Amino acid sequence: MADKTVLEQLSYERLPAVLVSATLPDDVPFGDDPLEELSALAETAGLQVVGKLYQKLAQISPRTYIGSGKVEELARLVKNSEARVVVLDNELKPAQQKALEEACGVSVLDRTELILVIFGQHARTRQAVVQVKLAQAEYELPRLKNLWSHLERQRGALSAVGGAGERQIEVDRRLLRQRIHHMKDELEQIMRRRQVEVSRRHELFQVAIVGYTNAGKSTLMNALTNEGVLAEDKLFATLDTRTCVWRLPDHKVLLSDTVGFIRNLPHRLVASFHATLEEVLQADLLLHVVDASHPSATEMVLAVEGVLKEIGAGDRRVLMAFNKIDRVQDQPALTHLHSLYPDHVDVSARTGAGLENLRRRVQEVVEERETRVDWTFSAGNGRLLAYLKQHGKILEMDFEGDSVRVKALIEPRYLGQAAAMRDGKPA
Ligand SMILES: Nc1nc2c(ncn2[C@@H]2O[C@H](COP(=O)(O)OP(=O)(O)OP(=O)(O)O)[C@@H](O)[C@H]2O)c(=O)[nH]1
Ligand SMILES: [Mg+2]
């Protein structure tokens, strides 16, 4: 874990930073500049990028991740650019992180830690705060020992205080494990309360917006519902799921905005955001929003599909929404995406282009699954009303005198029984 004070400064000070990319032969290229995404992450976190360093590695160096010649080059670059922090676009082992810090004389963060910093800055609700703290604590746990032995080495007193050091590590670990335990408990409680809300809402068809970070998910949610959720040109602007009612031409459905995905999302983070992603797992339809104007759109789509599989939502019905169509330059690339994903709509959340089409397409999906009924029957027929509620989704219900008019969606297999109840025939 990098120096805590450095992490705290990130949010309000434009600390100068050097970014490092090390690519292995099997890495899939992601855009022209391998550091483009890390730059955006760094900017979002509040860092000021003052230098970039690239290395193509045949294999990872166990001690410093990058090769020893590169370490020297990095140390020079840090010195010359007066950088205060180094960020590597890879996941570092604790010992590698320490070795690099010693060589450069400044804090070294890896990609995971930078994402954790951003999450920490953007967490608003109690649930998001606890989830982020949990992920941070789990990141810290395996790094505790290393910090300690590093201190001991510095003092050159390993043999003298070895026993005391060992005990101190155990104490630190136990305290951290306790904190992790408490946070998991608290999350579970929050989830139990949410579960009640979710099951109350269960009567409506649920659509969850998913997609790569910065794809325009929140902007789209706002354009469709006037909900006024936060949308910014920042990575991970949204950390909480927000759900609201979305009115389609003939239906009312629930629309949820969710946390953005990113490639190489660390497993720990995926796990700690499970609660937030619960909405995705319960959705009837996933609206996968893609920044179609991005040169790496296809890789982003694949990364999102990877995360969906990982959280157990790989088999969900998906409608692709190719967003930011207003600024697509590379028409052949878009045509290629169209051919890969025939079930798609082109939209611009900014200009509103394609939104009507999107509403219609989602409505079609809703109707595909269910039969729509528009029945008027005696308000005293509570049995039918209960049956429709249990096996279908009530869209509208109006009492007119002693009769009731119900518009509902119902799965075809329940339709016969419901119709019999309406017509007063024995089941
Ligand atoms: N040109 C253009 N820009 C858009 C469009 N939709 C969104 N944007 C911009 O893209 C940026 C990101 O939008 P958000 O809606 O915050 O993206 P998000 O997917 O919710 O991002 P996270 O919550 O950070 O994962 C903002 O600057 C938006 O104004 C669009 O259709 N066209
Ligand atoms: Mg958002």
In short:
By secondary structure, this protein is of the alpha/beta class. It is built from 16 helices and 13 strands.
Describe, in plain words, how this protein is organized in 3D:
It is a single chain. The protein is an alpha/beta fold. The chain has four domains: 119 residues, Rossmann fold, CATH 3.40.50; 63 residues; 164 residues, Rossmann fold (3-Layer(aba) Sandwich), CATH 3.40.50; 53 residues, Alpha-Beta Plaits. It has 16 helices and 13 strands. A six-stranded mixed beta sheet has the order 6-7-5-8-9-10, sandwiched between helices. The structure holds guanosine-5'-triphosphate and magnesium ion.
Summarize the helices and strands and which ones pair or pack:
Blueprint: H1 4-9, E1 16-23, H2 36-45, E2 48-56, H3 68-81, E3 85-88, H4 94-104, E4 107-110, H5 111-122, H6 126-140, H7 144-155, H8 158-201, E5 206-211, H9 217-225, E6 242-247, E7 252-257, H10 267-272, H11 274-282, E8 285-291, H12 297-310, E9 318-323, H13 331-340, E10 344-346, H14 355-369, E11 371-378, H15 382-391, E12 392-400, E13 403-410, H16 412-422
Parallel strand pairs: 1-2, 1-3, 3-4, 5-7, 5-8, 8-9, 9-10
Antiparallel strand pairs: 6-7, 11-13, 12-13
Helix pairs in contact: 2-5, 5-6, 6-8, 7-8, 15-16
The protein binds guanosine-5'-triphosphate and magnesium ion.
Guanosine-5'-triphosphate (GTP) is lined by residues 211, 213-219, 231-238, 260, 323-324, 326-327, 348-350.
